[in-house]
């Protein structure tokens, strides 16, 4: 086996240099430049930056909400565990309600655990930062609740992934008047959603 | 917003049908067919199946190790939290040592936290199932330790991701005589690594 680079600072430097050389970041607004780099870094795909969509001022809205102490609502434990707690500006609570819902609960409500878990976000939704990194049904249910009058988050990060509903749920978010950053298409995931939160919390530092 | 599919069984059925229709699974050995489907499912990319590499008998070796009670050693908390504990066949311990290592420790050893954390796997390494879903340096350090005489895992799942060392560390694993399943290239991640473990634990059930 050849020698390998073990210096963390050098690994970051080379990684970010590769991303900046290959990814189409020129079209990103300044308040989302770090977010785009971090999302690309999380997945190893520089071309994915072209699939990012956002509402105007989304990056600033997310960063300000975090500094105000907004809770971070996530749809999966993997997202929660990808968020670097020590970098959060106001010791923001990171809340995943998925394990408060059983499969029997979901079966009784004829829906997914992920969708049902979103209903438990309601008391914390106003001004929150939402990060969906797994389940399209979580994002669909959130949009439904807000359409029906639920409080509005400060920002919704849409990184649902997969073959059933991921494209459609993120397109619905992008078409809405809600503050958002989302990745168009089937691709997404917990690592990208967590990376987006980490970027809003502290840029690339 | 249009109607959306909320029946979990139907979501799985349609997802797996799409994957089987689009992904090149014919070349996969029988003991890795479920693993390939689950890895594709985790990332939303059907073309990624073409980048999987494996040693002969890897799937069976991993499944048998889990049934024997092998510990699962992971390089990141996100991998640990993507593993469905209730499906593990022998209440296998899932061990992530990353948070046992501080940045000061890593700086003192002139390496990454991820690489240093792997040294803490040594007492559990023999016959284990290793899942690397994040750090190339964790995989490099593991291969170094084994080259130097450390015990051999029953299976190494190589899904390191990124721009510095991911390609090279996984190529080194694939070129070794160690039992492995790995994803060639920059792509990878915690969700894929956890999906691979989940497939070995219980197929698609």
Rg of chain A: 17 Å
How would a crystallographer describe the biggest sheet of chain A? 6 strands, mixed
The chain-level structural class of chain A is alpha/beta
- How is the CATH topology of chain A named? Rossmann fold
Overall shape of chain A: it is globular
Largest interface chains and counts: A-B, 51 and 51 residues
CATH superfamily of chain A: Cobalamin biosynthesis CobH/CbiC, precorrin-8X methylmutase
Mean of the pLDDT scores of chain A?
96
InterPro entries (chains A, B): Cbl_synth_CobH/CbiC, CobH/CbiC_sf
Protein name (chains A, B): Precorrin isomerase
Keywords (chains A, B): Cobalamin biosynthesis, Isomerase
Family (chains A, B): Belongs to the CobH/CbiC family.
Summary tags:
alpha/beta; 6-stranded mixed sheet; Precorrin isomerase (chains A, B); Cbl_synth_CobH/CbiC (chains A, B); 9 helices; homodimer; 205 residues; 44% helix; CobH/CbiC_sf (chains A, B); Rossmann fold; cobalamin biosynthesis (chains A, B); 6 strands
Brief write-up:
Two copies of one chain form a homodimer. The first copy, chain A, is α/β, with parallel strands linked by helices and 205 residues long. Chain A has helices spanning 8-22, 33-43, 58-67, 77-82, 103-108, 113-119, 136-147, 166-175, 190-202; strands at 52-54, 72-74, 94-96, 129-132, 155-158, 180-183.
Question: Would you mind describing this structure in some detail?
Answer:
- 2 copies of one chain form a homodimer.
- Chain A is α/β, with parallel strands linked by helices.
- Chain A has one domain (51-202): Rossmann fold (3-Layer(aba) Sandwich).
- In chain A, 44% of the residues lie in helices and 10% in strands.
- Chain A is built from 9 helices and 6 strands.
- Chain A has helices at 8-22, 33-43, 58-67, 77-82, 103-108, 113-119, 136-147, 166-175, 190-202, and strands at 52-54, 72-74, 94-96, 129-132, 155-158, 180-183.
- In chain A, strands 1-6-5-4-2-3 form a 6-stranded mixed sheet, with helices on both faces.
- In chain A, helix 4 links the parallel strand 2 (72-74) and strand 3 (94-96).
- Chain A is globular, with a radius of gyration of 17 Å.
- The mean pLDDT of chain A is 96.
């Amino acid at each position: 086996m050849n020698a390998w680079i073990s210096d963390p600072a050098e690994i970051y430097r080379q990684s970010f240099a590769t991303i900046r050389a290959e990814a189409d970041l020129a079209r990103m607004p300044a308040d989302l430049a770090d977010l785009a780099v971090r999302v690309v870094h999380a997945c190893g795909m520089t071309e994915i930056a072209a699939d990012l969509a956002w509402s105007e001022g989304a990056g600033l809205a997310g960063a300000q909400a975090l500094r105000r102490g907004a809770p971070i609502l996530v749809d999966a434990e993997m997202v929660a565990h990808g968020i670097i707690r020590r970098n959060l500006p106001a010791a923001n609570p990171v809340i995943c309600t998925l394990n408060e819902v059983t499969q029997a609960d979901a079966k009784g409500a004829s829906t997914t655990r992920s969708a049902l878990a979103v209903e438990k976000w309601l008391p914390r939704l106003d001004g929150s930062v939402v990060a969906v990194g797994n389940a399209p049904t979580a994002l669909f249910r959130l949009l439904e609740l807000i359409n029906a009058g639920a409080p509005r988050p400060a920002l919704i990060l849409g990184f649902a992934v997969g073959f059933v509903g991921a494209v459609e749920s993120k397109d619905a978010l992008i078409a809405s008047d809600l503050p958002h950053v989302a990745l168009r298409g089937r691709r997404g995931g917990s690592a990208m959603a967590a990376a987006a939160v980490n970027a809003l919390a502290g840029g690339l530092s």
